[in-house]
Design goal:
By secondary structure, the chain is of the alpha/beta class. About 40% of the residues lie in helices and about 20% in strands. Helix 2 packs parallel to helix 3.
Length: about 300
Amino acid sequence: MKNKEEGLKKDIIKNHPCFSVKAHNKFGRIHLPVAPICSIKCNYCLRKYDCANESRPGITSKVLTPQEAMERVKLLIERNDRISVIGIAGPGDPLVNDSTFEVLTAIKREFPDIILCMSTNGLYLTDRLEDIVMAGVRSLTITINAITLEIAEKIYSWVIYRGRRYTGRDAAECLLFNQWRGLGNAIDAGLIVKVNSVLIPGVNDEDIPLIAWLAGGKGVDLMNIIPLIPQAEFEYFQRPSREMINSMRDKCIQYVPQMTHCRQCRADAYGILGEDKDMELEVLNARIGEEYCEMVN
């Protein structure tokens, strides 16, 4: 039984464009922006606007209803663009949006061979782990930016957990405890787990190798160190250079395999990594609508 599970896990990783460097230009993914609510406030996060020329986490041209999301899935899969993965990565946190599980359950029922994926801050991971498994999710990304309370307190403004709002050190303690507990529980449940860490120069440089050490020891499959996009409260911070990112990866690879092909995708991305076909589709739909209006008028 264990060998069968390991074989299935290897097959999923092999066909997942985010988990496999060989798959990232071979298979496509769909991100469905159905989760607008978030449970934490990161000081580098800005979701107020959308720019069609920009690719970064948390932005989308439109938040979709579950019905709209399913219509999009059917349309894009029918186009046969080698879609192997459908994920939900925002624009908020999937675990505090019931629409997440409504959509994933519907996809599992209609397209059982598609790999289902989710990105989360991990705050509610233990609380909703049974729902995640029941919805058919096999791969999971958890964003963890700190391992010490002092650093976490600098990165996060507030946390809302089980109806209570936490700030300062209390927020840091609540988030870190739930992230690491949830990560361990997810691995025990057989999920494929990737940890994302945003490198914030001068803030969490020393914590990231510790994150890699602890995550690798718990059995995390992959780590993705991504550069800070200076914005929001961190608007005036330095964006780490490629050399800084590579140096940090070199420090961490001894503990856990490193992802090197991330494109910091939008919450509505579609297609091969870096192609941003979904935005092209939005533009095409808008153009068709304009042409139709001109014809009828």
